[in-house]
Amino acid sequence: MTISGVPRFQRFFRTASGLHVDKDDLKRYRDFLNRKVYDLVLMAEATAEANQRDVVQPEDLPITKGLQQSIHEFEKLDIEPEVVPLLEQLEALPPLDMELADPTMDRLSVVAGGLSLALARTIRIIDPGLKAPHADDWERAFKIFDLLF
Q1: If I label 38, which of 13, 29, 94, 146 is the partner at 20 to 30 A Cα–Cα?
Q2: Could you give all domains of the chain from N- to C-terminal order, each with its CATH number?
């Protein structure tokens, strides 16, 4: 479940972290989400291969305890995100070596929601007094995620 329209994106960030974002931030957010979901799928492929499977199953996704908590919190939020087919977004990235099982594709939407929530809260943690993130605020948060995911 990714937030694709500007008003939904803005409402999500206000709800998740109290931050005010604008349409210029939407591209940064989408690029981040595409990269991180793809990174998780790449690691899931390695797990599936190690388990001698040729299809990536939901249990292959490397979901940490913190990400799982963010997923649960995302699901509890009182927002109505627009569902964006992640498959279309993943097709714009380098091709995968394995097919994703349907339940895995279904799981990716809530994983994307958990990543989105974690990102919003990370920006807030980096600068608790921040009202609206600037490019350097986004980049600091992205660097933290790159270290962990």
Answers
A1: 13
A2: 6-148 (1.10.20.10)
99 neighbors 56 (Cβ within 8 angstroms) = yes
d(CA 108, CA 87): 9
Q: Please identify which residue in the block is written with the tokens 């790159």.
A: 146
Burial class (CB in 10 A: 0-12, 13-18, 19+), 149: middle
Q: Do 12 and 116 contact (CB within 8 A), yes or no?
A: yes
How do residues 1-32 score in pLDDT, each as one tens digit? 445 578 888 888 999 999 999 988 988 998 89
Q: How far apart are CA 104 and CA 87, in angstroms?
A: 11
User: Is this prediction's pTM over 0.85?
Assistant: yes
